[in-house]
Design goal:
three-stranded antiparallel beta sheet, globular, alpha+beta
Length: 100
């Protein structure tokens, strides 16, 4: 299990680079995966990254009101053509993502 020191170290590494980390070994229905590190001030005092535009404002308000300032986000890009893929239920998708 990870602890706060390990989380802080990973967060600082990605935040300092001001770039996204690329995730490997994605399931077949995921085209690309990234790790993004932001502080609350980066998220809410400036322009939100484009991928945050899809989130409900209530989620963003919860993030604003949270005590944790350092945030790691996993951004997953689904494949455009999923016709080859039998749509699994949500739990099997989450199981697949957590095992990679």
């Amino acid at each position: 299990m990870y602890n706060d020191a390990q989380y802080d170290k990973v967060w600082a590494y990605y935040n300092r680079k001001s770039k996204y980390g690329v995730l490997g070994m994605n399931p077949s229905f995921i085209k690309d995966g990234y790790i993004a590190a932001f502080s609350n001030s980066q998220l809410f005092d400036g322009a939100l990254p484009d991928f945050f535009q899809i989130y409900d404002s209530s989620l963003l308000n919860k993030l604003k009101n949270s005590k944790r300032d350092q945030r790691l986000f996993m951004v997953l890009i689904a494949r455009q053509d999923l016709s080859f893929f039998d749509a699994p239920n949500l739990s099997s998708v989450l199981d697949s993502l957590s095992s990679t």
